[in-house]
Amino acid sequence: MSENTDPTPFADAANGDGTPNPATAEHSGQAPEAQAGQAAVDPRIAELEAEVATLRDKWVRAEAETQNVRNRAKREVEDARQYAVQKFAKDVVEAAENLKRALASLPQPTEGEDNILTRMREGIESTERSFVGILERNGIKAEDAKGKPFDANLHQAMAEQHSDEHAQGTVMEAWTPAWTLHGRLLKPAMVVVSKGPAQAG
């Protein structure tokens, strides 16, 4: 029996001219057209994935910026709500200080003093306490500076004096308190500051 010399089953995957051998392509299970199409699809997938990554990054940045805008708007609204009455509050604390001055102008209580003077003092004291309470409930507070270290953020020095009882830089006397509105300075305290003990000679 003669030996089969047909070279087809053992042919190379490509013909001599470099084109795919149809017989080999058939046995590989993928047509030449499918192989070419797969080669074209892979770069497109990579391009789309890169585009998705870029869009995701832009979305994250935009979302962060939007949140920052919301936070800024919220703070501005809160500030406007709290400090819109700042000018009015300054005028109100003037009235509170005038009540304090009215009390200070009255003579000290004495035994057997006139009943009218006693009732006047009690009436002004009651009004002053009630007024200060109303201010505090609305975020307006007074801070007595006497005996505290001088703070340029809260105090305004009206004079400096030597003192053997107060260290240098201590508030010896406060003519008015420091007034704040929700922690923000409305009106500084008018104070006298110690220069420390006078030097001999």
TrEMBL record:
Its main location: cytoplasm. Residues 29-40 have a biased composition (Low complexity). GO terms for cellular component: cytoplasm. It comes from the Bacteria. Residues 1-43 are annotated as: Disordered. The keyword Chaperone applies. GO terms for molecular function: adenyl-nucleotide exchange factor activity; protein homodimerization activity; protein-folding chaperone binding; unfolded protein binding. One of its GO terms (biological process) is protein folding. It is found in: Cytoplasm. InterPro entries: GrpE (IPR000740), GrpE_CC (IPR013805), GrpE_head (IPR009012). Gene3D superfamilies: 3.90.20.20, Head domain of nucleotide exchange factor GrpE (2.30.22.10). Keywords: Chaperone, Cytoplasm, Stress response. Belongs to the GrpE family. Homodimer. Participates actively in the response to hyperosmotic and heat shock by preventing the aggregation of stress-denatured proteins, in association with DnaK and GrpE. It is the nucleotide exchange factor for DnaK and may function as a thermosensor. Unfolded proteins bind initially to DnaJ; upon interaction with the DnaJ-bound protein, DnaK hydrolyzes its bound ATP, resulting in the formation of a stable complex. GrpE releases ADP from DnaK; ATP binding to DnaK triggers the release of the substrate protein, thus completing the reaction cycle. This is Protein GrpE.
